[in-house]
Amino acid sequence: MYRLQQHSHDWTSGRPVFTTCPVGKTRVGQELIQGAIDPSIHFNQSPLIPIVSIMPVVTNGRVIYLGHPEGIYQPGVHTKYVEEQLDTDAVPLNGGILVKLLAISSDPYMRHRMRDPTIKMFAPPVTVGEPIDNFSVAKVVRSEDSAYSPGDYVIGYFSFEHYSVHPGHIKHEFKHCVKVPKIPGLPLSAFVGILGLTGRTAFTGWHLYAKKKAETSKTLFVSGGAGAVGTWLIEYVKAIHPHLKIIASAGTKPKVDLLKSLGTDVAFNYKEENAEKILAEHGPIDIYWDNVSGAQTDAALVNMSMFGLILACGAIAGLNKEDEGIVRHFEKIFERYLTVQGFLFRTGPDAERAFNEFDQEVFPLLQAGKIQNREHRFIGLQNSEKALLAVHTGENFGKAVIIVDEEGGEA
User: Domain named Alcohol dehydrogenase-like C-terminal: which ranges (predicted)?
Assistant: First the structure.
């Protein structure tokens, strides 16, 4: 679709006049386009002499944040998908770049961003009335920044919009933009999954805090093991520490079956089996990778070995209901001389170092097929809200990713 811009001249004032109209929507528009094609068509005697230029206009879908959830996130209540017409040639860049969104991640941590901005947390709040944003892969369409050219693939923190300007008017500490290559055999969406937040979070925690401990350990327990971070971690640990016995939990039979297919030694459904008894039978636990907090963390605490290690990666159990995230056996930390290590992706000098070491260690494992790209794809930006809900209810099977443009999902 194109929009005609009619440049004319007001001979009485000597000033140019600019008017726009969609092609074919008005008689003038029809005449203009015909005149552009057929020079024999003339406008009758008129003080306005039109000159026609054609500019690209696209439908720009956007997911707008409407308000803060008190419990579980609800599509249509806390966010809304809308569409508007956008002239991609006329968008002010202000020294930045215009990107076309190819794929965008949906992650549980985003629930922490849906809050009153006066509440301080590790992640910046989403602004009511603005599009939500997250880790994404995109393609540069226009650029006023010499570091980027049209056609470049970039990963960054972009808005849930088909087209958006980076850095734009909403600025926070998660905003970034980096050029990336197209890797043979992998879709660009992998940059928001196994090569992005998912993989780099798992790598950061293990590489910095557990790798050395694992050399003398026997047993690892991963709660929420069938999630995107959990599956990545299990495959990675199986590859570099094959001596470790891995225990992992999930909430459905298909996810338990997935854990078994990864080589998990003991996989169980925490909704149907007693986690504390399972861990007592197969423990003690030397390293606990905690993705959930709550009851499963309590089960791990009473089954930890002396001088054990707990890596606090997530607390999804308390995202929608605070009381389900409560940990009651805190005393086990001092009774058993446990180390509890929290961490965040690319936060702090150590995490930045791990980020930079990721490629060297992980790419050979990807090429050898020891770490697989598993995606639960939601096709089209209009299905973004389904993807956002899925990661908060556990419905996703693999890394939840929204394929906005088919180029983002092609290997």
Answer: 228-353
Residue intervals in the chain for CATH 3.40.50.720? 197-342
Look at residues 217, 193, 173 and name the one whose alpha carbon lies nearest to residue 311. Answer: 217
CATH class of domain segment(s) 60-193+375-408: alpha beta
Domain with CATH 3.90.180.10 in the chain: 60-193+375-408
Classified as helix, coil or strand, 27 is helix
Class of the domain covering 197-342: alpha beta
Q: Is 320 exposed, middle or buried (0-12, 13-18, 19+ CB in 10 A)?
A: middle
Tokens found for residue 392: 């908060």
The answer to whether residues 62 and 161 touch, using CB atoms and an 8 Å cutoff, is: yes
235-281, pLDDT tens digit by residue? 999 999 999 999 999 999 999 999 999 999 999 999 999 999 999 99
Per DSSP, the three-state class of 281 is helix
| DSSP codes joined into one string, 6-29 | EEEEETTTTEEEEEEEETTTSHHH
Q: Is the pTM of this model over 0.85?
A: no
Question: Rounded to the nearest 10 degrees, how much is the dihedral formed by the CA atoms of 383, 389, 395, 399?
Answer: 70
